[in-house]
Structures are given as C-alpha cells and as structure tokens.
Design goal:
This protein is α/β, with parallel strands linked by helices. It is globular. The longest helix is centred in the middle third of the chain and has 19 residues. A hairpin with a 7-residue loop joins strand 5 and strand 6.
C-alpha cells in the first residue's frame, strides 16, 4: 500500500477521527451562516498558528468537495516574524500542501512602539493589510481563523471589561473596503478540539510571536496584562463545575431577548425600553 503524505494523513484525520468535532461543525457554520456563495473568491488568511492553518486545510478540502464553484487564495502576511517563525510557516505550508502567497509588512515594529493598546493597533493594521492584499488578488471575501472559543471569550470580555453585551459575528461587511466581506468558518469549532487535532498529527505551529505575547509568557502568572488570557483561565475553571458553560454562552448569543433589556444599541444608535413604553 502506498504511504500517505503528511497532507493526506491530516486530511484523513479530519474526515475520520475528527469528523464530528471539526469537519461537521465547520460545514455547519458554512451552511448555517451562509458564508460562501457560488463564484466567491476567498482570501484565506494564514498567520501560521494552529487555527489559521487548520482553516486553510478545511477550506481547501471544502473546495474539492463543494457542490458549487468558488476560488481560494492563501495569503500569509509577515508582520515582522523572525527567521525561525517565517521558516516554520513555509515548512508547514509545504507539509500541508497549501500554496501560500507571502507578503511583508512592518506591523510588529509599529505596534511595539505604541504606548497604549498595542494589540488593538496590531489587529487593526493586520486587518487593513489583509483586506488590501485580498482586493489586489481579486477576492471578495477574507476568511479568518476565529473559533467558537474566541467567540465566547470575546462575549465575556465585553461584559466584564467593556460594560456591554457584544459578541463576534460569523460574517460582516467591511466598512472601509467596498464589496469586501469577512467570514469566520471555524465559528462552531472548539479550540480544545483544534489542539487535539494538532497533537494527533504531531504538528507544530507558531504562536503569536510578537513581543507583547512573549512578555505574557514570561510573566509570573502567565497572563501579564492580557484580559483575554485571564478570561480563558476563568472559563477553564468554571468548566470544572459546569462542563456545559461554553454551550450555554454560545447559545445565549443566538437567543437574545431584547424585550428584557432596559437599553440596547443598533447601527450605532442607543435605544431605551422607554421608547414606546406608554403605548404598550
């Protein structure tokens, strides 16, 4: 029997070992949120981490099996990786047989000089560069690797530290790039299952690789000033007594009862329950 390549073994693990925890939730998100339409041209954005590399492989497999045609571009933005991380991304792309297009920016240097909110600045600049490159390649969508755990953590973060109930959408139109749309095909996939898939296939991916992340990794509590990491650890503790807590939060953002809130915000405008209250 012919020996399978690394890419073939990885694909087999997705359709067999992790069919119920990765492949099916991925397909469910694509269908439920209508993330793809015929003749889309999607830029799959790869950072080099486990989430984006898995996303690239899933999108590649979906295109192969899809009932309708769509095109893919696999783009890697190098924000200032060191030689080791850059080499690791290129090596993994070869192993997984993902034909990547790499382009350089100086985002890490700019964000590192920022006195306040370097992660926010980095994220905004990354998004802008990705949209621009995607447009250059003739794409109408970009796909990012945010997963279900990111969705839940963002919801909790906004409640605890943002004084608002705010989620993360499975897709949204770009405000600055006309005709462009962002999609999140891993929306229903749990991070813990991505970690299991990575270990099962003996794959090694890069972490964020920025200086801020390194500071967090070397802090005494392993969190530094990262509120997201703090929430991640909190949810991990809560799962010990309530294993269903992630499902509860995820289902809650799909089942918001606006009529029970004294105020809400839509399309940038604030509204009060008092509006029309006397007419009820």
């Amino acid at each position: 029997m012919r020996e399978l390549s690394t890419a073939q073994r990885v694909e087999r693990s997705i359709t067999k070992t992790y069919r119920n925890t990765i492949w099916n939730p991925f397909i469910r998100a694509v269908k439920q949120y209508e993330l793809l339409q015929p003749n889309d041209r999607v830029a799959v954005c790869i950072s080099g981490g486990k989430d984006s590399m898995l996303l690239a492989k899933l999108m590649q497999m979906l295109r192969r099996y899809s009932d309708f045609p769509f095109e893919l571009e696999y783009i890697v933005m190098d924000p200032g990786y060191d030689a080791v991380n850059r080499s690791k991304i290129e090596e993994n792309a070869r192993l997984l047989e993902i034909p990547v297009t790499i382009f350089e920016t100086d985002i890490f240097d700019i964000a590192d000089r920022a006195e306040k909110y370097p992660c926010y600045l980095c994220a905004r600049m990354r998004r802008g560069h990705l949209y621009k490159k995607a447009q250059e390649l003739g794409c109408n969508k970009i796909a990012l690797g945010h997963h279900l755990s990111d969705v839940i953590e963002t919801t909790v973060l906004s409640l605890f530290y943002g004084s608002q109930l705010q989620g993360m959408m499975p897709k949204l139109h770009s405000k600055n790039y006309v005709g462009m749309e962002l999609i999140r095909p891993l929306y229903c996939v749990r991070e813990e299952d991505i970690l299991k898939w990575r270990s099962y296939n003996n794959l090694e991916f890069i972490a964020c690789a920025c200086k801020v992340t390194r500071k967090i990794a070397h802090s005494e509590d392993g969190m530094g000033d990262s509120k997201r990491q703090e929430v991640k650890l909190l949810l991990k503790e809560l799962k010990k007594t309530n294993p269903n807590i992630e499902n509860s939060i995820f289902n809650a953002i799909h089942n918001v009862h606006i009529d029970t809130f004294p105020g809400y915000k839509t399309k940038g405008d604030n509204h009060s329950f008092l509006e029309g209250y006397g007419d009820r």
